[in-house]
Every structure is written in structure tokens, then in C-alpha cells.
Amino acid sequence: MMELNRRLFLGRAGLGFGSLALGSMLRGGESGVNGLAHFAPKAKSVIWLFMRGGVSHMESFDPKPMLNQLAGKSIGETRFKYVQDRDRLKKVRVVVVNDANGQQRNKLYPLQVGYKKYGQSGIEVSDWFPHIGGCIDDIAVIRSMWTTDDNHGAQVQFHSGRHMLDPRVPTIGAWVNWGLGTLNENLPQFIGMGPRYFDRSDGHYLGPAYDEVRLKIDPRNPLDYAKPEGDLTAEEQRLGFGLVNRLNQLSRNRFPNDARLEARIKSYELAYRMQTSVPGVVNFDAETEATKKLYGFNQNETRSFGQQLLAARRFVEQGVRFVQIMHGAGAAGAWDQHSNLKAKHSQLAMQVDRPVAGLLKDLKSRGLLDETLVVFATEFGRTPGSQSSNGRDHHPYGFSVWMAGGGIRGGVTHGTTDEIGFHTEEHPHYVTDVHATLLHQLGLEPERMEVPAHKRLEIDFGHVIREIL
After folding, report:
1. Max alpha carbon distance in the chain (Å)?
2. Exposed, middle or buried by CB within 10 Å (0-12, 13-18, 19+), for 288?
3. What is the Cα–Cα distance from 129 to 146, expressed in whole angstroms?
4. Whole-angstrom distance, CA of residue 144 vs CA of residue 125
5. Domain coordinates in residue numbering, the chain
6. Which residue from 224, 408, 409, 412 has the highest number of Cβ atoms inside 10 Å of its Cβ?
7. Overall pTM surpassing 0.85 (yes/no)
8. For 160-178, what is the mean pLDDT?
9. Is the domain covering 35-217+288-468 a CATH 1.10.760 domain?
10. Is residue 185 scored above 70 in pLDDT?
11. Tens of pLDDT, residues 403-432
12. Residue 246 confidence (pLDDT)
């Protein structure tokens, strides 16, 4: 009853934030680790950029000129007919049988955009991403990713390592939050921005304390339910919080060794501090006009995403461990071009290209790129064959992601797909290999990230991609 009354008091009279995110923290209980890295880390924080819907790898970071040579031909009448051998397709687990999407597309479709080599490394990048291309010497492109979901549940799979048909397990952001201690006691350690559908939880069996804390770029109200329900002054809030502290002390005296109580007290205190600390981080008044322009604030197409990325830089600058930003609205995600790929992909690329390059340049100029790992990912690629005459379907057999900073070697490509971009060939990597690499750079051993009664599978841990370190 005391806990219920305390929750009611916090929600109505003082902290406000307890209505949603604090409630999650309260249910989470305690961490099972000491918050220390297993070995000396290369990185302190992660900025995770996820393009929802499926970016075409051939028209982004793995151009395939062979598609232009074979355009209009069916795969079966080319020397690449082997790519559709039954044994090579069997790794996919179908969620929706006979769905209109996620099918084989046989008529080869030419590239819808040009490409060129960038930087001293000479890595080929699509003309839709010229600003990111300009940063390519700081980027490691992994061109040999694969997954097993041919529908958009692959978004869940990329973050957790498990297929939609499997039980839900913690995401990579939750594991980082669970495994490492805080660098700033006034801010949450796992922040999320942008559209998110399907599974909206992260902690799962770790507890909701390890879910992302959802934020908006609005200094007046960046956190849902962050303001008290009543019209209270700051002094009245402080008085209310002081009363809660005294109630907590009474409970602490009765139960001096209760770790869950200690966790609750800390979460109450964090919630109160966040009311003032978070709005300050998403207020850009102190930033120069040159910095804002770097992120695309001066263009309608780039402003929204640029604001999120500038906030991400400011959060990691303040010690936030994991900032997760989703791009692409809609249930499936805006990058899901089953038709009109050229028009839509070019529009979406314009929204992210300049802000992402701005983020990399800004981090580098401030000396933060060395300790901040940036990931640019998507759930799968798109088919070499056409769908609806001018689109591409889902393609889990081979696609690209990239990483930069945090000890990642720049100006390199790793792994390959075949000449039409169908299958991975050299150095294939399942999605959890990205997780393992990220954790390694943060000083964590994936195999030690486990809790009692929740045995993890070998595929959950992944393998560090050492060639890009």
C-alpha cells in the first residue's frame, strides 16, 4: 500500500515523469552487473541510426553495375541463375505465407542512380549520398549482411538478433544499458527518437528499466508526462520530492538491505533531475549557426532529422551511452519502396545524407568521434529484380550497413555480395555480428552478457568483425 500511495503521489503531485518512463524504471528492479567494462573500451557511447523499411544496398553503399548490363533479363537466363537455387534460399523463415511482398523478383532492374568513388580510399557510394560519401575515409562499410526475416519484423531481428517468430529478447540498446554504468546521473542512459512500430520494448526479461526513454525535440516538452499533473511551482515540487525522500528513508531503515528499494529511490531521483537536464540538452540556442547549418537546419527536407542528430551529439557529449534514432514513418517504414523507388529513395536520402555527414564531421571536430561509435543500418536490402515495374522487394540475403568512430577503421569495405547483389559471398555476417562488434568496442564480452534462467543461443552473441577494427 505504501508503494501504491507513493506512486500516486509522484504522478499527481510532484514528479509527473512517473506516469510513464519512471513507471518503467520502477518495474525494472535492479541491475545484475557492476557497471564496469570487461576490458579497456575504445568507445564510450553509441549513436544508432536505423533506416526503417529497407534501404536498397545496390543504390546506396554497394553499387552493382552488372544490373545495368543485364537490365530486363530474367535471372534464370543469366549466368547468375544459381542464386535462386532452393538450398541457397532456405535460410529465410516466412512469417506471412503468400504475402504480396517478400517474394522472388526475377526481372533484373537497372540501377536508378549513378555512383562514384569517394575519398582517398576510393570507395564507391551512390550519388544519393554525396555528403556521407565525403566522409567515407572515416567509415567502414560492411557489404555482406544477411538476416532470416523477409518481412518488416526484420526490424525487430536487427535490434535483438531474434526472428519475429521467436520469443522476445532484449535489444542491443538494452544490453548496453544493462552492461555499463552511467556516465551522467542526470540523464537516462538509453534514449530513443523517431518512429517505432512492431516491438516497442527493449528490456524484455531484463526488465522495463532497460527500455529506451522516448524523447522529442521540443525543449518545452521533450518527455511525455514529464510535467506534474497539477499546476505546481518548482518550490512545491521540491517540497513534494523531499516528502517522498523522507518516506523512502523510513522504508530504508526498515529494510536496510533491499536492493530493489535502492533502485527505486535512485530512479525517483533520476526522474526529478531529468525534468531540468533533458530540456537543456534539446535546446539548441547555444549552438552556432554554422553548426546548425552543418546538420541541415536551413533546409526543410533535412531540418527534422538534423535536429535529432544534433541532440544525439549533445546527449553523448553529456555522457548518454546509447542514442537510438529511427528514420522512416509508417508501419513498414518509409524506405519500403515496392514501387517508385527512384523518386522515394532520392527523397529519403536527401533527408538523412547531409545531417548524418554533419554528425560525423561535428563529432570529429570536437574529438568525440574517437569515443563515439556511429552505426547506420536497415533491416534488409532490396531485390535485384523489379517489383511493380519501378520498385524493389524485400531482400534478406545480402545487404549493407556501415559503422564509424569508436575505434572502427575508416576507409574500408568488408565482405561482398555477388555481382547482382543477391547473396553474400565473402565474409557473410548475421545481424548480431554488428552487436558483438559494438559491444567489443565498449569493452564488453557478449558471452558474459547473460542472466540466470535466460540461456542465450550461440547466434545471439554474434562474432566481432575484427577486420574493421
Report:
1. 78
2. exposed
3. 22
4. 16
5. 1-30+221-281, 35-217+288-468
6. 408
7. yes
8. 95
9. no
10. yes
11. 999 999 999 999 999 999 999 999 999 999
12. 79
